[in-house]
Amino acid sequence: MKNRETRDEGMRDGSRFVVLEGGDGVGKSTQIALLSGWLGAVGLPHLTTREPGGTPVGEAIREIVLGRSDLDIGPETELFLILAARAAFVRDVVRPALAEGKTVVADRFSLSTLAYQGYGRELDLDHVREADDLARGGLRPDLCLVLDLPAEESRERQRRGVDEADRIEREGRDFRERVRRGYLELADTEPDVELVNARGTPEEVHERIRDRLLARFPGVFRGGGATDAQQVG
Questions:
Q1: Sign of the alpha-carbon torsion through 1, 51, 58, 164
Q2: SS in 3 state form for 125-162?
Q3: DSSP string of 92-136?
Q4: Phi/psi of residue 70, nearest 5 degrees
Q5: Average pLDDT for 40-44
Q6: Which residues contact 39 (CB under 8 A, 6 or more apart)?
Q7: Domain-wise residue ranges, the chain
Q8: Whole-angstrom Cα distance, residue 127 to residue 57?
Q9: Whole-prediction pTM value?
Q10: How many CA atoms lie within 13 A of 205 on its CB side?
Q11: What region does 16 belong to: left with phi over 0, alpha with psi -120 to 50, or beta?
């Protein structure tokens, strides 16, 4: 049974921390761009960002974890590199933006660590949770939306993309299946996590995401004044 968490004390009433999650190739980057456009249209101050990344430390770690295929990075090393990036991300990006009353929309956060390093790399989930809690300083998103596609469909989308696959994206089918199973199980047990069907056109998926936000936060995502939009990472 899922229990909803209380909001972080550092947030202003108008701010929300929203995370888009899911396996590689499900369309998170596209949806964040569409979501930013919608938030801008309704005049909601917001910031879009990604993990690992968003800070100089985070971007350097991102290059090591995802870009350096020549390095033999073990599961535990990978975990702690990602969590080091997260600690900087929370301190230097997320908390300041929320304190300013902005909505933060992130491409990945803690759920990715549980799905990829816990389920995918098969590290002990309790240990992963404990380490992650330290890195994020207790901060939790208001809502995580997991874009879900069968592993083979997301793989096919990825093959059609223009970007070269990174170190983790090159993992095989078994790894991808474990990651997806992790997301599905976490969506059943973690607070403030919802699945979104990622099949269909980008516009159809965007409408599903928008509907979830309007249902969860009635009155927050409505028309306002001038837009303050930022992108970090």
A1: positive
A2: HHHHHHHHHHHHCCCCCCEEEEEECCHHHHHHHHHHCC
A3: IIIHHHHHTTPEEEEE--HHHIIIIIIIIS---HHHHHHHHHHHH
A4: -80, -10
A5: 92
A6: 46, 103, 105, 221, 227, 229
A7: 17-218
A8: 24
A9: 0.88
A10: 24
A11: beta
Torsion, Cα 7 142 62 154, to 10 degrees, reads 160
Tell me the pLDDT tens digit for each residue of 153-200. Answer: 877 777 776 566 777 878 888 999 999 999 999 999 988 999 999 999
User: What is the pairing mode between strands 229-232 and 103-107?
Assistant: unpaired
Joined tokens for residue 33 = 């761009």
First to last CA, the chain: 35
- Any bridge partners for residue 197, and if so which? 148
CB contact set of 8 (below 8 Å; sequence gap of 6+): 17, 95, 98, 138, 139, 140
Q: Which fold has domain 17-218?
A: Rossmann fold (3.40.50)
Residues 6 or more apart in contact with residue 23 via CB below 8 angstroms: 115, 149, 151, 154, 176, 179, 180, 183
Tokens of 110: 């803690």
Q: How far is residue 107's CA from residue 22's CA, in Å, rounded to a whole number?
A: 9
